[in-house]
Amino acid sequence: MQNTAEQLSPKVKHVDPIIVTTPEPWQWDVLAKAFLNDPTLNFWLGEKTNEQTLSEYFEAMIKDTLASGGTVFASPDQKSVLIWTWLGRDPEDTNEFKKQWHAVLDPEGVKRYYWLYEEGELDLDPEKLEKSYEPAYMGVHPDSQGKGYGGHLLRWSLNYFEDKGYEAPYILASTRRSAKLYCPLVGFHHHKEVFASESDSEPVAVYLKRNK
Asked: What is the pLDDT of residues 71-119, one digit of tens each?
């Protein structure tokens, strides 16, 4: 998922990302600011959507990701952050940080969260999940959007995993616009749009699958 205001086409030269090993407040601060108007997060959080709630959500998400086999990348200048979650994780596995992001969502938000993934109809091969990751959340600080941070971070991290023999079978994009950017950039195709209700004209998520 990507904050929708970020342009993926590079406009400046970027250095290689760093791999985050220590959770720090600037990481969830960047993500909270980037996702403030994101339709997917708004769908999950509902009326609770604000920068403080998003900050609490992403703090728990980053800590849970690092504790459960995922990887977090960031630009060295702390302007962009990308969370990759490990799909081989046991869905029943839990820890204090997973409990924390569930608490931020509240029970209804948790239901919406898992419903959205079920509606994606991804049909993943269970035998490949051990070697699969999802680029779950990518955010660029508002004062640095439109400078190619997102595109560089996504391409570099995708190559990082592929060089190690891992797959990224899908992306959950927040809008049609961001989906159109992903497809030619990193070789994904449109799979399915998910709407919160039948009367909606804009989806709350657009699923993309990797080209074969």
From this structure: 999 999 999 999 999 999 998 999 999 999 999 999 999 999 999 999 9
3-state secondary structure of 142: helix
State how far the Cα of 7 lies from the Cα of 149, in Å rounded to an integer: 8
How many angstroms separate the CA atoms of 154 and 15, rounded?
13
| Domain residue limits, the chain | 18-210
Integer Rg of the chain from CA: 16
Within 10 Å of residue 120's Cβ, how many Cβ atoms? 20
Query: Domain 18-210, what fold?
Result: Aminopeptidase (3.40.630)
H or E element in which residue 25 lies: helix 25-34
Please tell me whether residue 189 adopts helix, strand or coil conformation.
strand
3-class DSSP assignment, residue 203: coil
pTM as predicted? 0.92
Q: Report the percent of the chain where pLDDT is more than 90.
A: 82
